[in-house]
Amino acid sequence: MGSGKQQYREVVAWLRARSWTVDEDRTGYPRARCPCGRHQKTIHRTPSNPLYFQQLKNRIRMMERECREKGERE
Ligand SMILES: [Zn+2]
């Protein structure tokens, strides 16, 4: 477990490796967008919750399931 900033960098690399894009919204918050373009998630760089990045990854995996399920119906 590294510092918050290091964990943030790791999660951005993890997202990009899964074909998500990470940019900043108008208020400067990092924002992840899924490969299908229908899901997005604002990311905190220095969350107070120590489990934040772990929970974020779980949420991202759930979104990826939705990406695939929606794609299969179309
Ligand atoms: Zn999606």
Low-confidence stretches: none
Largest sheet: 3 strands, antiparallel
Shape category: globular
Rg is 13 Å
Approximately how much beta-strand content do the residues carry?
A: 5-15%
Calculate the mean pLDDT score and round it.
91
Provide the number of structural domains.
1
In this entry the ligands are: zinc ion
Q: Give the number of helices.
A: 2
Strand-and-helix sequence, N→C?
HEEEH
Helical proportion, percent range = 40-55%
Record the strand order, biggest sheet: 1-2-3
| Structural class by secondary-structure content | alpha+beta
The number of E-state strands comes to: 3
- State the end-to-end CA separation: 41 Å
Explain the overall architecture.
This protein starts with a helix and ends with a helix. It is 49% helix and 15% strand. It has a 3-stranded antiparallel beta sheet with strand order 1-2-3. It has one domain. The mean pLDDT is 91. It is built from 2 helices and 3 strands. By secondary structure, the chain is α+β, with helices and mostly antiparallel strands. The longest helix has 22 residues, at 52-73. The protein is globular and about 40 Å long. It binds zinc ion (ZN). Zinc ion is lined by residues 34, 36, 38-39, 63, 67.
Topology:
Elements: H1 4-17, E1 21-24, E2 30-33, E3 40-42, H2 52-73
Antiparallel strand pairs: 1-2, 2-3
The structure holds zinc ion.
Residues 34, 36, 38-39, 63, 67 line the site of zinc ion.
Q: Can you describe this structure in just a few lines?
A:
This protein is of the alpha+beta class.
